[in-house]
Amino acid sequence: VLSTEPVLQHRPALTSEALFEVERFDDGLSAHILRMGAGMQTRGPGPQSTRGYYLFVVNGSMLFAGQEMGVWSMVAVGNDEDECRIEAGAKGLEVLLLEYPLTEAA
User: Fold this and answer.
1) pLDDT higher for 25 or 103?
2) Are the C-beta atoms of residues 1 and 60 closer than 8 Å to each other?
3) Residue 47: helix, strand or coil by DSSP?
4) What is the pLDDT of residues 16-29, one digit of tens each?
5) Are the CB atoms for 55 and 47 separated by under 8 Å?
6) What local confidence, expressed as pLDDT, does residue 4 receive?
7) Is 15 helix (H, G, I), strand (E, B) or coil?
8) What angle do CA 64, 18, 1 make, to 5 degrees?
9) CB pairs under 8 A, 24+ apart, for 72-80?
10) Distance (Å, whole) CA 54 – CA 36
């Protein structure tokens, strides 16, 4: 469930919600929803500890590389890249973080 605009914009703290338990599936993929109020910032996972990850904007907007990215925008971060800064736009941000495991699944 996504936040309404006023709730998202005025969130007092960043939250991260796992969409499923990683152990439930064999592929090792993890999926979280990060919820951030207006102007909040955080760092993405260290890409060197993963095969990389995707950030999908599902509500609000994300500021990335000097651009405001709206709903359905995506950023791919490879494991050979620097750590990614995740910053919420003026109305807040809900972003789907899909993180791929460093090792092959069993």
Assistant:
1) 103
2) no
3) helix
4) 998 887 665 566 67
5) no
6) 94
7) strand
8) 80
9) 76/52, 77/44, 77/47, 77/52, 77/53, 78/47, 78/52, 79/47, 79/48, 79/49, 79/50, 79/51, 79/52, 80/47
10) 17
What CA–CA distance (Å, rounded) separates 45 from 25?
21
Q: What is the DSSP letter of 13?
A: S
Which one-letter amino acid corresponds to residue 13? Answer: A
State the residue for tokens 């405001």: 68
Of the two residues 18 and 56, the one the predictor is more confident about is: 56
Neighbour tally for 2: CB within 10 Å: 13
Q: How many residues does the structure list for the chain?
A: 106
Q: What is the DSSP string of 49-94?
A: GSSEEEEEEEEEEEEETTEEE-TT-EEEEETTSPPPEEEEEEEEEE
Closest to 97 measured CA to CA, from 71, 58, 69, 67: 58
Calculate mean pLDDT across residues 71-87: 91
